[in-house]
Design a protein that fits this description.
By secondary structure, the chain is α/β, with parallel strands linked by helices. It has twelve helices and 13 strands. The two termini are 25 Å apart.
């Protein structure tokens, strides 16, 4: 299999088209409370996370997305970098304070500056306010994202590339139409429409027509779509400049997702062993 994953650029910064997701590291299963607890008890460990990240880095997948102010994450990333000699492109999704008065009175600039200063100290390359903040600022009446331009300016001042994390498809079209200083977007995208606000074909059209590269998330619908179906769909539905964020819970699972994705992109059979059950013995 190829030893380097295909790449793209965001705001002039080169990075892999596959992005390491962090939900499966930090206990966000989007499934059940029991599943969340399983992750926190069995995966959320510095060494285990570093072991998984190492697999990605050795295949040229060098971008990681999520809340990066968790000491377990920062330590695990550093460990994986030390083992491989490769650097990680840090894509952070911090929450910024938003309340009912924000759209009128503006952001709490002091609080946002404090958050962004902390992000800069973590070595963040691309900073994208989390959907819980972004989507509160979407104005469907005026077709704009209010106050987000100030966040972008503060991020630029700290030498970070501004992006937009959103679960609302109109956020992308509004940002494009108003010329917001955004270099990339996060968008949910999967074949079953899991957590998506509009139909899959509409979301696909928005991604294809976005003015900047799009980082798609939840390609496997939090484990509800098997990897072959999930990756075959998403890699063939997005553009060459767009990305896919992948969450895994073990090094072997990471290796499988990488090889399966490469096989789809290279139009070949994947070099992975299929899972087996007793009922499949007659198929051999």
């Amino acid at each position: 299999m190829a030893d380097k994953f295909p790449r793209t650029k965001v705001g002039g910064l080169p990075l892999s088209r596959m992005i390491i997701g962090t939900n499966w590291f930090l206990g966000y299963s989007h499934t059940t409370r029991a599943k969340d607890e399983y992750i926190t008890e069995n995966v959320m460990d510095r060494k285990k996370i570093a072991d998984i990240i190492e697999v990605f880095l050795r295949s040229g997948v060098d971008a990681l997305m999520g809340p990066l102010n968790n000491p377990i994450m920062t330590d695990a990333m550093k460990d994986a970098e030390d083992r491989t000699g490769a650097g990680i492109i840090r894509i952070s999704t911090p929450s910024i304070p938003v309340n009912p008065r924000t759209v009128i009175d503006g952001l709490d600039i002091g609080a946002v500056e404090k958050i962004l200063d902390a992000e800069a100290r973590l070595g963040v390359h691309i900073v994208m306010p989390h959907t819980t903040s972004t989507d509160m600022l979407v104005d469907n009446c005026t077709g704009e994202l209010r106050q987000v331009d100030k966040f972008c300016r503060l991020a630029r001042e700290r030498k970070m590339i501004p992006g937009l994390s959103t679960h609302l498809p109109q956020s992308i079209t509004f940002a494009d139409k108003t010329g917001l200083d955004i270099e990339t977007y996060i968008s949910i995208f999967n074949a079953m429409g899991f957590l998506m606000q509009v139909e899959v074909d509409w979301t696909a059209s928005i991604i294809r027509n976005a003015k900047k590269p799009v980082m798609t998330i939840k390609p496997m619908a939090a484990g509800q779509i098997r990897p072959l179906q999930a990756f075959t769909f998403v890699w063939n539905a997005i553009r060459d400049c767009d990305m896919v964020t992948v969450g895994t819970m073990s090094p072997k699972e990471a290796a499988e997702c990488i090889e399966l994705s490469l096989s789809i992109l290279e139009h070949r059979t994947a070099d992975i062993k299929l899972q087996e059950t007793r009922s499949k013995s007659i198929l051999k």
